[in-house]
Amino acid sequence: QSPLAARITHLIGPATLVSALDMKGFSLTLLALEEAFFEALHAPVQVLGWTPMYDFAPISLQRAERIGSVLDFDPSDNAEVAQVVERVTQTLIDLESELNALDAKVGDGDTGSTFAAGAKKIQRGLREQQLPLDELPTLLALVGEQLATVMGGSSGVLMSILFTSAGQQLEEGSTLPQALMHGLERMKHYGGAQPGHRTLVDALQPALEALAAGESLADAAAAAQQGADATAQMQSAKAGRSAYLNQQSLDGVKDPGAYAIEKVFAVLAG
Fold it and tell me: Contact, 223 vs 79, CB < 8 A?
């Protein structure tokens, strides 16, 4: 505890003053409180985001409990599923720098880090043998739950919707491709992205449609690549950070999310 703590008489916050791009961290600012500052900080304002100053009082601390999964499951083994999870997660982890560099051209430069964060969480559960690998509906639901926690931002929420909805559909008797298609439709419903909007949907939808039609993983991978390639020729984006950029900034650059889908299906097909 700093000696300055005894000299603090007033507080503003804790509160969000500036927040963007899922930035994590905090800032502390100390001000020697002269009379003019005191009057100014107490003055009424019309700015909605301003947090009023209040007298400092001792704070009661309470230890937080670690939040675990709300799902009730027992870890189980399935070698085939484990191999798929390992290959997908490792692919996304390996792509982190490449996706960030690609996203720096058309977004905010964090797609690789966002996808890798989710992949590392799932991969850690796999290697610690804490996944329900032999209960696919539960596994998809767990992936959805964890992605919402670690990916952050809209990406984590939308991917969570996809996997959670797919798990529910699989539980009701759908095939895996049908369940994933249902999850994609829910993600599109809540996120607003459609084919042609220059997002990962442009690669994921044709790939899943190929699988749902009974085609092979190789066919799905080819469809994903074709969809990802198409994003490089789209002159505008209708969703995500790329929607703020002009045609010249987007021309010839693949959407990072679509490129990630392309690479994942390529690895699965290989």
Answer: no
Asked if residue 110 lies in contact with residue 103, where contact means CB atoms within 8 angstroms, the answer is yes
pLDDT number for residue 47: 82
Pairing outcome for strands 53-55 and 10-12:
antiparallel
Alpha helices in 172-250 (DSSP H): 176-191, 201-212, 217-231, 247-250
pLDDT for the residue 29:
86
DSSP 8-state assignment for residue 223: H
Residue range 59-76: average pLDDT? Answer: 78
> What distance, in Å, lies between the first and last C-alpha atoms of the chain?
56
Grade residue 245 by pLDDT with cuts at 50, 70 and 90: very low
In this predicted model, what pLDDT tens digit does every residue of 182-192 receive, in sequence order? 999 999 999 88
Closest by Cα among 143, 138, 137, 141 to 85:
143
Q: Is 54 helix (H, G, I), strand (E, B) or coil?
A: strand
Which residues partner with 55 through β-bridges? 10
Taking the C-alpha atoms of residue 164 and residue 225, their distance in angstroms, rounded to an integer, is 25
Structure tokens at 8: 């603090």
In whole angstroms, how large is the CA radius of gyration of the chain?
23
Contact 148, 154 (CB under 8 A): no
Asked if pLDDT for residue 109 goes beyond 80, the answer is no
Measured in whole angstroms, the distance separating CA 261 from the mean position of its chain's CA atoms is 14
The count of other CB atoms within 10 Å of the CB of residue 198 is: 29
- Three-state DSSP at 55 gives strand
* Tokens 């929420």 -> residue: 157
